[in-house]
Design brief:
single chain; 116 residues; alpha/beta; Rossmann fold; four-stranded parallel sheet; disordered C terminus
Length: 116
């Protein structure tokens, strides 16, 4: 049995991933796809056993994920953030409003709410 303790990593946007550092999670915040690719390829040397990979990198790095999947660790899983879900819900509500009324004028965009 090995005395090595593996770590958990997150590859994603800084504003989403950085708070996880307080939990002891290794954070990687690549500026572009090639940087994310290099980080993912180097996870083995970093003793990472589980890596959460943001949805924006998940599909483009499929080959790299599959190569790592042939090894025992690290295990790479995808995660999404609230921003994508919120945008999706906005679009769904807008589509439903158009189907129901023929117009999207009843659906307000975020940040355009009236006060008073």
């Amino acid at each position: 049995m090995s005395d090595r303790i593996g770590r958990v990593a997150v590859i994603g946007d800084q504003d989403l991933a950085y708070p996880l550092r307080t939990l002891g999670i290794q954070i990687y915040t690549p500026g572009h796809l090639e940087e994310a690719r290099k980080i993912l390829e180097e996870l083995e040397q970093e003793d990472i056993v589980l890596c959460f990979l943001h949805q924006s990198y998940f599909e483009p790095l499929q080959e790299e994920r599959e190569a790592l999947g042939k090894k025992f660790t690290p295990v790479v899983v995808g995660f999404s953030d609230y921003r994508k879900i919120t945008d999706h819900l906005d679009e769904m509500m807008r589509d439903m409003a158009v189907k129901a009324t023929g117009s999207a004028s009843l659906v307000k965009r975020r940040g355009n709410h009236e006060t008073g």
